[in-house]
């Protein structure tokens, strides 16, 4: 795992918590440049946790870079609940947005949800995600999803595979895949994490 934050004590505390959760190796970086160097040296790790307010560059851009280089899970741990930052983080590919002011339990829950394949937003930023239903680049909105599509998306957010979703809803895996294709067309993205993030932002799923 990789932890990127310019505050040494916070960085060490997060690394220690990840170790308690069973992380094998936790790499640390204090800047965007250090994070890039670590990412290049290690290749994609299981999880990256990073601050947005780094001293030498944009944390949002770093999220985009890590995701484009094959990092499967990125969690943002930020001091700001600014709506623009929250939405930008999810749109860049982050699977969770946590606040530094959150309790250790909330942080642990968020990280665990992401490791299980889900998406998580700090409870205090949920109202931010629920405002503004229009999806960038398309006239469709998550509120146009059918009840069944919302059910499918909720189970995706809970970290379930297509097969598990099919068993839960008494559907074939192929039907689940068809639902996800339609959802993707409506939301303007084929990425599961981004579908969930957009629907969460609109308050359609929790």
UniProtKB/TrEMBL annotation:
Modified positions (4-aspartylphosphate) in chain numbering: 51
One protein family per Pfam: Response_reg
SMART domains from the UniProt entry: HTH_LUXR (SM00421), REC (SM00448)
SUPFAM superfamilies referenced in this protein's UniProt entry, alphabetically: C-terminal effector domain of the bipartite response regulators, CheY-like
Keyword field contains Metal-binding: no
Ranges for domain Response regulatory: 1-115
Domain HTH luxR-type: 138-203
UniProt keyword list: DNA-binding, Phosphoprotein, Transcription, Transcription regulation
PANTHER family named in the record: DNA-BINDING TRANSCRIPTIONAL ACTIVATOR DEVR_DOSR
Name assigned to this protein: Response regulator transcription factor
Organism: Amycolatopsis minnesotensis
């Amino acid at each position: 795992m990789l932890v990127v934050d310019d505050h040494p004590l916070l960085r060490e505390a997060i690394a220690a918590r990840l170790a308690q959760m069973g992380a094998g190796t936790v790499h640390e970086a204090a800047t965007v440049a250090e994070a890039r160097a670590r990412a290049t040296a290690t290749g994609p790790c299981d999880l990256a946790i990073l601050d947005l307010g780094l001293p030498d560059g944009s944390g949002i851009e770093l999220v985009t870079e890590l995701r484009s280089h094959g990092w499967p899970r990125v969690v943002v741990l930020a001091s700001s609940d600014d709506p623009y930052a929250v939405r930008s983080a999810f749109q860049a590919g982050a699977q969770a947005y946590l606040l530094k002011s959150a309790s250790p339990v909330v942080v642990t829950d968020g990280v665990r949800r992401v490791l299980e394949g889900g998406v998580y937003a700090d409870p205090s930023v949920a109202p931010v995600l629920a405002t503004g239903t229009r999806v960038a680049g398309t006239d469709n909105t998550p509120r146009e999803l059918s009840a069944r599509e919302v059910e499918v998306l909720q189970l995706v957010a809970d970290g379930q595979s297509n097969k598990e979703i099919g068993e839960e809803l008494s559907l074939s895996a192929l039907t689940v895949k068809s639902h996800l294709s339609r959802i993707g067309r409506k939301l303007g993205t084929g990425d599961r994490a981004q579908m969930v993030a957009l629907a969460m932002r609109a308050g359609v799923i929790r």
